[in-house]
Amino acid sequence: MKRHLCVGEESTFGMSRRGVLNRFGMGLGGIALSEMISNGTSSAAGVDQKTHLPAKAKRVIYLFQSGGPSQMDLYDHKPILKERHGEQLPEEVRKGQRLTGMSGNQSSFPLAGSPFKFSQHGDSGQWMSEVLPHTAKVADELCVVKSMHTEAINHGPGVTMLQTGSQFPGRPSIGAWLSYGLGSANDDLPSFVVMVTKNKGGQPLVSRLWGSGFLPSEFQGVRLRSGKDPVLYLNNPNGITRIGRRKMLDKLVDLHRLQVEKDSDPLIESRIAEYELAYRMQASVPEVTDISDEPKHILDLYGKDVNNPGSFAANCLQARRLAERGVRYIQLYHPGWDQHGGLAGGIKGQCSETDQASAALVTDLKQRGLLDDTLVIWGGEFGRTNYCQGKLNGNNFGRDHHPRCFSLWMAGGGVKAGTAYGSTDPLGYNVQEDPVHVHDFHATMLHLLGIDHERLTFKYQGRRFRLTDVHGHVVKGVLA
């Protein structure tokens, strides 16, 4: 069932359900129940109508690189920084700005140029590091934003900010907002799916990052795992058959109908909607996770790790399979980008795990005609410092967290391909031109999906909340 935005009105979940029922008899609760019985689908969060704006993208695949990838070692070429390797960071560049406790007490801040070679690629001449040979091949499909910035300087608040629009836990994630506003295009799969690369260290990634916050729980992300049980607790326990599960759900609906006749409870409606989806997923999840029907040339495109369930490459292929089946928002997490030391070897390792599959996803979507209406995003929670953390020993060094400028890229879904947007100063410490705050990034993402970020709201504890809080502007320079 397709769910549409409420335009300029309070969500029915934020209204008094008793008031609605008193005015309209069985009201929305009864409508939702009848929909559930006749179609096997969940209740609607809003009224049936078009999006606020013409949508360029129908879905999002967000390849989140947790830990803070170093922008000047991947996308933001700084030859002057390399020339001045070992010199002190000028105070007129730093301007007394806040540093983390890991490097804030250093007596010396030696500049550290990238140990990697950069070259230009494609007709667009995008600058890419040598550790991204596959991404370089799709340079003309990418819009590389080099002027991202945020207030968060540590991982927990930083990841939370990128994923929810706030540094503080408790807000709905991006995928939950989109599920609430747009719903699912496939009744048999969740509208919001999450995958985390298995067996990776790094900063912890907790479930609140894909949670629904104060939105109804049916909008939270569903985590897809590797192994025999891709979704925990989805399969029937021993002694319970699929026929028995169906009878149990039917009895629950009967009980709910009796409750609706007296007074509807949105929590019960939400819970039954989740039960119904889980029942349908028992058939749909095994089908989508079985890649035996993928031809060899597609598997080769994603690389040798694609046959290792739970790897980044396998998750990227799963993301494409979910996208073509109508999943609205697909969130991948790949931890391990936190190079406080041993940066050169660490980044090489991370890129060997992610570079080919990221480029393959863009290529695969394009050859299937899906890239035009799929927004693909690659990036982390912040960048890294242009100076060395600790002592500088040749090219053996690390970089600290740096929220004042970092890079990410977007592809497809209505963004301007083959472009670089924004710039940083010659030493890569501050944004120099066209800054893009996290709220601006979110506003632009919603815009591409046909949503006015100021109008997708939910009333909670006396105020209307939105993904962009009270900030954010659409970055028109990245729109095709």
Question: Please, could you describe this protein's structure?
Answer:
The structure is a single chain. This protein is α/β, with parallel strands linked by helices and 480 residues long. It has one domain: Alkaline Phosphatase, subunit A (3-Layer(aba) Sandwich). It has 13 helices and 19 strands. It has helices at 17-24, 27-39, 79-83, 91-94, 133-137, 155-164, 174-182, 242-262, 266-289, 296-302, 312-323, 343-367, 438-448, and strands at 59-65, 118-121, 126-129, 142-149, 192-196, 222-223, 329-334, 374-379, 383-384, 389-393, 396-398, 401-402, 406-411, 419-421, 423-424, 431-433, 436-437, 458-460, 463-465. α2 (27-39) runs antiparallel to α8. The longest helix is centred in the last third of the chain and has 25 residues, at 343-367. The protein starts with 16 loop residues before the first helix and ends in a 15-residue tail after the last strand.
Keywords:
480 residues; alpha/beta; Alkaline Phosphatase, subunit A; nine-stranded mixed beta sheet; two-stranded antiparallel sheet; 19 strands
Biggest sheet record = 9 strands, mixed
CATH topology: Alkaline Phosphatase, subunit A
Structural class: alpha/beta
Q: How does the overall form come out from the CA principal axes?
A: globular
What would the average pLDDT be, to the nearest integer?
A: 88
Q: How much helical structure, as a percent, in the residues?
A: 25-40%
N/C terminus separation = 30 Å
Q: Briefly, what CATH class?
A: Alpha Beta
- Continuous helix count: 13
Shape-level CATH architecture: 3-Layer(aba) Sandwich
Number of domains: 1
Sequence stretches where pLDDT stays below 50 over 5 or more residues: 6-49
- The beta-strand count equals 19
Strand portion: 15-25%
Task: Describe the oligomeric state of these chains in a short phrase.
Answer: single chain
Q: What name goes with the CATH superfamily?
A: Alkaline Phosphatase, subunit A
